[in-house]
Amino acid sequence: MTIAVTGAAGYIGSHVAHLLREQGAHVLAVDDMSAGIGARVDSFPLVEIDLARDEAPGVLRAAFAQHQVRAVVHLAARKAVGESVEQPARYYHQNVAGLANLLTAMQQSAVDRLVFSSSAATYGMPDVEAVDEDLDCRPINPYGETKLVGEWLVRAAARATGLRAVCLRYFNVAGAGRPELGDVVRANLIPLVLDRVEQGLPALVFGDDYPTPDGTCIRDYVHVADLADAHARALAHLEEDERPHDVLNVGTGRGASVLEVVAALAEALGREVPVEVAPRRAGDPPRLVASVDRIHDVLGWRAARDLADICASAVEAERHRAGN
Ligand code: UFG
Questions:
Q1: Catalytic positions, please?
Q2: What is the 186 CA–ligand 1 centroid distance (Å)?
Q3: Which of 91, 148, 81 lies closest to 117, judged by CA?
Q4: What's the pLDDT band for 36 if we cut at 50, 70, 90?
Q5: Which of 5, 9, 88, 254 could bridge to 41 as Cys pair (CB 3.0-4.6 Å)?
Q6: What is the predicted pLDDT for the residue at 244?
Q7: Ligand 1 in contact with 106 (CB < 6 A)?
Q8: In which family does this protein belong, per the annotation (predicted)?
């Protein structure tokens, strides 16, 4: 059976595509190659298309028929929070119109299984120890809004058309399942700290006066290989279960502060990493940690890797990148 993976040339998508193939599936990569890396998908059949374009449903229909696609994992989206604040129309167009086009093509092709890439950015600034999926979502930026609207659209399609879908709300994804699939976008804490170390500069810590034990923000860092495994399990669940629609957090259930992440990176690097405290960054919740009971109940999934594994694999991917 063939599974289409949109965004397969990206950081998370490439992990998903490679894992599904290792597990015996045929994978059709769908990507506009705007941010992806060709080498990550050059061993897969590829449909190069921007899903938000008007011709996308027709192109997808033809590809789904040609490759006998049975299910879709949809990751293709724009994901820079700051950029989404500056260019909301572009984000809504890419992320929401892209999904609408995909759902249109799926319905026309009778492809009725979907795993949708959502985000903990849907929650906004929750003031709780651990966020569960029933919490009210109040996103605070257009990126998070597009993911929440995407979930609504998926739910509406599930009701209207019998689509079976799982929406996965990713927490802070990091690490590399293999060195050549590491994150090349230098936007998140771990790659940014590694870049600073490379330049001989101290790690920047955005605020140390938050109401947390060490004053720095707490997040739930999940290894990208564990996240890929959650997608594989979600697909298997859609094969078995008649329930049409689930929303599931993907995290570890454990929080780590910025200073704890820097310390874990220092350990993985085998050297000290000095820190410099910078002002708070706008829009950062002090604490964002997943409740992971539901994904364990529904998919039997738990993260197998911890922060040390994440940092070790990120450092290894960094060395691989520097060597190329
Ligand atoms: N941080 C620093 N120094 C840096 C970079 C980040 O102190 O150089 C801090 C941030 O202020 C924040 C924490 O590290 O407190 C994590 O920041 P990231 O930018 O790595 O991640 P975010 O939690 O802001 O956002 C990430 C993804 C979003 C996603 C969200 C979901 O980037 O796309 O997780 O929880 F929506």
A1: 143
A2: 11
A3: 148
A4: confident
A5: 9
A6: 62
A7: no
A8: Belongs to the NAD(P)-dependent epimerase/dehydratase family.
